[in-house]
Amino acid sequence: MGPSAPTDWLTIEHFRAPIEVNLIGLINVTLHLLPLVKMARGRLVNISSTGGRLAVWGGGYCPSKFGVEGFNDSLRRDMKAFGVKVSCIEPGLFKTGLSNRKKIIQERETIWKQLPPAIRKQYGEGYIQKDAAKKEKLTQIFQNTDLSLAVKCMEHALTSIHPHSRYTAGWDAKVLWIPLSNMPTAIQDFILLRNKTELADPTAG
Ligand SMILES: *[C@@H]1O[C@H](CO)[C@@H](O)[C@H](O)[C@H]1NC(C)=O
Ligand SMILES: *[C@@H]1O[C@H](CO)[C@@H](O)[C@H](O)[C@H]1NC(C)=O
Ligand SMILES: CC(=O)N[C@H]1CO[C@H](CO)[C@@H](O)[C@@H]1O
Hints:
Rossmann fold; three-stranded parallel β-sheet; 8 helices; 57% helix; binds 2-acetamido-2-deoxy-beta-D-glucopyranose
């Protein structure tokens, strides 16, 4: 996942790690297996994310998943002639190692401690606690605990006669993230900004 924090807290290396794993790694594995998949008239199932449709938080994770989405149409069309079917799965928030709150909060605190004083002044000393409390509440509302929802999509994509090109897993993805991702930018910003933690003094420093 990489650290998720406001963009002005991050360095290029914070972005590079999730992009290397989620996008470059996925492309590399696909390229290496493509000859065998073509021979077998097999299937490709990529795990993207609702974070590949709507960038809800800062950091490299959403750009990496937008990258995965960006490849999907061309590969599907390129592989059609070979009888290879391509599917993309977009899970919402699931309770897995990826969404380990303790780790996410720790990573953010480490970054916070290394920030220049001017930036800390802009956000305010209490920012990180307020923001963590808010995110904890949202996580409790939205997080799916039934991982089989995502696994069932994978199973269908791999074993059904007519796999879909796109699967959405989790109620939050179905009723919130994916519909919101199809709405005009002004509405997306209105809804997402309402849930942002306020800065103490953006003009400080
Ligand atoms: C792609 O995978 C191969 C081995 O499977 C590895 O040697 C190579 O470094 C990888 N390339 C990138 C850009 O990750
Ligand atoms: C799966 O990933 C490969 C490599 O990035 C990409 O070419 C392909 O389009 C992706 N498919 C989907 C459905 O996202
Ligand atoms: C970004 C992108 O190209 N997304 C496409 C991925 O594939 C689905 C399913 O076919 C399309 O609906 C998206 O437009």
